[in-house]
């Protein structure tokens, strides 16, 4: 098998894996290790469109105090700073607040709903994910990628 066929197969495999991962993450089956800031509550620390990479929640959850975390609040990702950690019953809870907000969030979040701690942020990189969050836009992007892939394949065949 020549190298161009190997690259072609590798490209199809990579595209398939990416598409499956995207579908699973949108369906909520796979938790993604990154998130995108979609609002203004964390400014000036994190601006809208900033992509944040998540590190695991430490086993010593009191170490979260002062760190920015991503957590689930009724199916919505929230990216806020931990301002309090306290034990209750058999678990821990965190109280969070957006840096630009005057008051803390009006709820406490159980530690098992915290997806991760922000360990890296990349300004503007997440803008594309904000656009792709809407299913019609995501489907359109996937269709365009497949069409481009097929078109490039045809061009490559004609060149040979």
TrEMBL record:
Keywords: Endoplasmic reticulum, Hydrolase, Membrane, Protease, Signal-anchor, Transmembrane, Transmembrane helix. GO terms for cellular component: membrane. The chain crosses the membrane at residues 12-30, 50-71, 138-155. Its main location: endoplasmic reticulum. InterPro entries: LexA/Signal_pep-like_sf, Pept_S26A_signal_pept_1_Ser-AS, Peptidase_S26, Peptidase_S26B. NCBIfam families: sigpep_I_arch. Catalytic component of the signal peptidase complex (SPC) which catalyzes the cleavage of N-terminal signal sequences from nascent proteins as they are translocated into the lumen of the endoplasmic reticulum. Specifically cleaves N-terminal signal peptides that contain a hydrophobic alpha-helix (h-region) shorter than 18-20 amino acids. This is Signal peptidase I. It comes from Caldivirga maquilingensis (strain ATCC 700844 / DSM 13496 / JCM 10307 / IC-167).
């Amino acid at each position: 098998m020549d190298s161009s066929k190997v690259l072609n197969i590798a490209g199809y495999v990579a595209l398939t894996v990416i598409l499956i991962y995207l579908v699973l993450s949108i369906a909520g089956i796979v938790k993604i290790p990154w998130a995108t800031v979609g609002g203004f509550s964390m400014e000036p620390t994190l601006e809208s469109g900033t992509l944040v990479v998540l590190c695991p929640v430490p086993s010593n959850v009191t170490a979260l105090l002062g760190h920015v975390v991503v957590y689930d609040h009724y199916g919505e990702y929230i990216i806020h700073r931990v301002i309090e950690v306290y034990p209750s019953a058999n678990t821990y809870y965190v109280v969070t607040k957006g840096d630009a907000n005057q008051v803390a969030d009006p709820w406490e979040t159980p530690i098992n709903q915290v997806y991760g701690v922000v360990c890296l942020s990349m300004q503007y990189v997440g803008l594309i994910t904000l656009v792709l969050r809407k299913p019609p836009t995501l489907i359109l992007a996937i269709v365009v990628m497949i069409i481009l892939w097929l078109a490039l394949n045809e061009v490559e065949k004609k060149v040979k």
